[in-house]
Amino acid sequence: MILEARDLSLSFGATPALRGASLQVEAGEMLAIMGPSGSGKSTLLHCLAGILVPSSGEVWFAGERLDSRSDEARSAVRRDRFGFVFQFGQLVPELTALENVALPLLLAGVRRAAALKRAEPWFERLGLEGLGARRSGELSGGQAQRVALARALVAEPEVLFADEPTGALDSLTGEQVMDLLVDTARSAGTTVVLVTHEARVAAYADREVIVRDGRVNSPALTP
Ligand SMILES: Nc1ncnc2c1ncn2[C@@H]1O[C@H](COP(=O)(O)OP(=O)(O)OP(=O)(O)O)[C@@H](O)[C@H]1O
């Protein structure tokens, strides 16, 4: 097991988002987190990734407690060991596509020339040949999402967190992005935690769980 949520609770003001959510993720598996709108899926993902800290419960990553560590320590784990793809607005508009992909390496202290060199092969891998010099405003939604995927994977994260990664795309473009996400994650052995409300997207995963009212159910156990 690489990642575990133990009995997480978290409220936003008077709104409970998580109410005793528990989840285990095996190394190398692709897990889909499904459930109705407002059920707590994104909050659970943010807790697993060390972005949010639960008010009670524990998050464990690679044998170590994550939630009780300092902001700096959790940021370092996110930067060095996790990758992220979200639904919208993730590319830095002032940077070229190539610089966007290289960004996690630059933040990790890799020199600029070396970072850009490591970013380059991702353009061919994800069908983005010739687009490295474009800025995000000059890319289609599907192209921008593939650039975001390349950026999430360039530093070879142990876990890729994806929150509605195809939510802003039409279904064909969404399928292409999911195919690439699955292929690249599988070939690298990356663990994937994917939040989606679309069964079609969840079908790419090895396993799915359902979040309802801030708790996690395995579908097989739900009557
Ligand atoms: N930053 C926030 N401030 C206040 N309330 C929040 C915040 N984030 C989430 N919530 C509330 O917490 C609950 C769970 O939200 P969350 O985003 O985790 O649900 P979700 O299952 O991901 O929903 P969706 O599928 O609509 O994205 C909701 O009632 C939501 O309104």
UniProtKB/TrEMBL annotation:
Pfam family, one: ABC_tran
Cellular component per GO, a single term: plasma membrane
Cross-referenced SMART domains: AAA
Keyword line: ATP-binding, Nucleotide-binding, Transport
SUPFAM superfamilies: P-loop containing nucleoside triphosphate hydrolases (SSF52540)
ABC transporter domain location: 3-221
This protein's name: Putative ABC transport system ATP-binding protein
